[in-house]
Amino acid sequence: MNKVTIDIGCGDNPRDGAIGVDIRPYESCDIQADVCNLPFENESANQIYASQLLEHLNGEEQLPRAFKEISRVLEPNGEFIFDVPFGRTWQADPTHQTQWYFKTILYFLPRDEVARLGWDPTIFPDYYESDEISLELVERDAVAWLDVDWLPLRAFSFLVRQASKIITTDRWDGLPLGGGNLTFRLRKRTEVVE
Questions:
Q1: Residue 158: which CATH number?
Q2: Which residue among 71, 129, 157, 170 is the one 20 to 30 A from 145 at the CA level?
Q3: What is the distance between the alpha carbons of residues 12 and 28, in angstroms, rounded to a whole number?
């Protein structure tokens, strides 16, 4: 199978070697399409990227549909890598419809995956049938928490980033840490867990 990489929400700057997809008709974009209705065959891509896109979708309708579409288009073991602004960015950008924290991803993963990550899956709303999404969390990362040159704050930023890799509780979501991005790497399962 040929390696197909898709960059959804690429704007006017798609990734090198990727098929650029955006809802707007940018000149350097290859395909004009909505992330909730991708014009690709089932299991046709081995990588999908989305940078600074998902925060523009609403959480109850568009995000579950987007994750379903991405899951449909990815081949088994294919990866979906995306980043979103951390926290309450709608205060700075009125086009942001969802706020992303460490545990926000749990709302859009299958129930058994949520349980595997150590959470009670019954506390998250049923937005979709879990067999429609077959993604698992591989990695999450906090990037550029504080964009400052003052050494103590840079050190604090580094410590928070390292802690985010091992702490799975929602305590981080309540901290007044602004700025920065969260990056997630998901993989499509090769088989659905019953």
A1: 3.40.50.150
A2: 71
A3: 6
Residue 152: inside a domain: yes
194 domain residue, yes or no: no
Please give the model's pTM, rounded to 2 decimal places: 0.81
**Half-sphere exposure of residue 88: CA atoms within 13 angstroms, side-chain side:** 6
| 18-51 tens-digit pLDDT | 999 999 999 999 999 999 999 999 999 999 999 9
Distance of CA 120 to the CA centre of its chain: 21
Task: Give me the domain span that covers residue 112.
Answer: 5-188
- pLDDT score recorded for residue 193: 52
Biggest distance spanned by C-alpha atoms of the chain: 50
Give CA–CA dist 117/111, Å, rounded.
10
CA distance 30 to 11: 10
List the beta bridge partners of residue 188. Answer: 135
Residue type, 116: R
Q: Tell whether the model's pLDDT for residue 174 goes beyond 80.
A: no
